[in-house]
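On clarity, I found the account of how folds are encoded harder to follow than it need be. An entry of this sort, consisting of the sequence and the corresponding backbone structure tokens, reads as follows:
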Amino acid sequence: MSDPQNDQQNDSQNDPQHVHHYRGPVINGSVSRSQFFWDNQTVNQNQQNDAASAAPGYEELAALVRDLLRQLPRAGLGEQDQEDAQAAAEEVLGEITGPDAPEPGRLRRAVATLRGALAPVATGVAAGATAGAQQWALTAIQGLAGVV
């Protein structure tokens, strides 16, 4: 007959969750985009994770859309139009930076929606659109026209 207390002690000795390692890191599971250090006096680390990398062949589109997103608040769009443009831009980025290959139809529709959201600024119809914003939107639409 076994002794339950002895069995419990033996189980805890064999359980890898209770093993202590004092000389370095132990990683149980997958790790990505991480930085760690130990046994250092001073540490200077830099990591740049501006955005996920784009699928091959879509790097230029990703750069264009990221730039567009940075400049969008100054474009002179109304609140709803700006939200629509931002959602379309994020959909484009999601499609080309996701884990799966970009789906051409979905990407084409998202880019068309984004161009449509910028059209009122490019044509000067958007209230408050300045000449600089008009030129910016026109350039963005032209850039988006040739990528998909």
Q: What stands out?
A: The two ends are 73 Å apart (CA to CA). The mean pLDDT is 77. DSSP finds five helices and no strands in the chain. The helical segments are 4-14, 59-71, 79-97, 104-123, 131-145.
